[in-house]
Give the backbone structure.
Amino acid sequence: MISVLEAQEFVLKNAEKLPVITLKLEDSLGYYLATDCVSPLSLPSFRQSAMDGYAFTHTNETRLKVTGQIQAGDLSTPHLKPGEAVRIFTGAPVPDTADTVVIQEHTTREGDTLIIEKLPLPKANVRPIGEQLTAGTQVLDRGHQINEASIGFMAGLGLTEVKVYAKPKVCIITTGNELQERGTPLKPNHIYESNGIMLQNALKRLGILNIQLLNAEDTLDATSKAVHEALENSDVLIVSGGISVGDFDFVQQAFQDNGIEEHFYKVNQKPGKPLWFGIKDDKSVFGLPGNPASSLTCFYAYVLPHLRSRMGSINPLLNKRSAILSETITNIHGKTLFLKAGVNGNTITPFTGQASSMLNTYALSNALLLIPEDTEQLNAGDAVTYLDLNS
Ligand code: AMP
Ligand code: MG
């Protein structure tokens, strides 16, 4: 059985990038850049006034003649002679014949005469060409996840399109004869299906919207057919349940029958031990344990980083952070534990109800407390590591 770290290495090493596509800038939110972004412009590209005021050439003279005004967007600027000033507004071009802007609040006017009451330093309030960046500079790296600020920034560079990695098509297959769709009273000894919609929404949070949901009965034939259909239609296949050693667990056999190459089966962790990962051509396949909390933990620890990596992220894992443990915890299992937990300020508190069937405490968790396999006890007050579920 491999360790958590080995399993994470496997899923990241086997995360082939999805194809590069070109998108309109306005449609690129959440995608990862497939090329470095080099600025075609200097910013600013002309000398700009940073304030509303008066442009002039700095001397000790504080009475100047106002000869005109320059508005933001004016295509040309007037020539200023010594002793002259021009009214100017924020974002407007500063004439070559001026080097300083005095802010309006530090002046008074007597007709055409400007009286500077507080003389600024030379070059004050003038944004020089290239103050933010110069043309030809690499401004965003390949792997950057595009956010609203980067969209605004790239728009300011005049870019209309970006090259990004595509997002995957994902198929989720739920297995289990006991599963029932919501909307009708529960039949005897059935449970409402919950992993499918949960994983679907975990994918949505990653910006993955092309998701197919299938359900397979617990027979080899039905499971194999569902896996076959999913492989035809998706880049990534996630199967929930049926991956353990029970007589009605057919998922592993169905993977084999569909020619999917196993990379690992079982990880030394709790919950989520019976995790399966394999590859067929450019398609990745996860068999997640059916217990809901196990399924979600395996999603956060392995599926999420794998998907982010395929989408081009260079930092695909959930962030590991540190906090102070509120109570003593023992680990008698010799496995890595992922405990549903709440972080408040600098304190982390594991919830009661850690069983892999229990989602109620997961709904309240913002962290998974990580207890390494070789750690037998952690005490209240110890600094511990957790996965930030909102990263
Ligand atoms: P399995 O991994 O198929 O042995 O399932 C383990 C446990 O998880 C069983 O109690 C199942 O009823 C439950 N389970 C499996 N799949 C789902 C699902 N899609 N939604 C909710 N519970 C599930
Ligand atoms: Mg089952």
About this structure: The mean pLDDT is 97. The chain has six helices and 28 strands.
